[in-house]
Amino acid sequence: MSYTYVTPYAIKGVTAGASLAATAVSIDVAGRAFMIANTGAQPLYFKEYNEDSVAATAANGMLVAAGTVCPIVLTATTLSIIS
Q1: Is 51 exposed, middle or buried (0-12, 13-18, 19+ CB in 10 A)?
Q2: pLDDT one-digit tens code per residue, 14-72
Q3: DSSP output for 9-64
Q4: Residue 10 phi/psi, 5° resolution?
Q5: Which residues, 6+ apart, have CB-to-CB distance to 52 below 8 Å?
Q6: What is the pTM of this model?
Q7: What is the distance between the alpha carbons of residues 29 and 79, in angstroms, rounded to a whole number?
Q8: In 3D, which of 73, 66, 58, 56 has the Cα closest to residue 10?
Q9: Minimal CA–CA distance to 81: which of 33, 22, 34?
């Protein structure tokens, strides 16, 4: 039996999107692994923009409730976020 060492994730930087209100913002993630924290008071919705060139909305995005962290490590090319 053989084992493979898996390198743990390390924080390489923090991207903060301030004032995400009513207009979707695109963030270039460039294929890096990331997690999303919603430190605001409103729900946040996100989706991969490059999949269909459609910005995130409450109808098509994944929800991150106010004051929570999405507990999944994700990857994307360009992320669309709206709050």
Answers
A1: exposed
A2: 776 666 677 888 888 888 888 899 988 899 999 999 889 999 999 999 999 999 999 88
A3: P------------SS-EEEE-TT-EE--EE-SSS-EEEEESTTTT----TTTSEEE
A4: -130, 140
A5: none
A6: 0.79
A7: 7
A8: 73
A9: 22
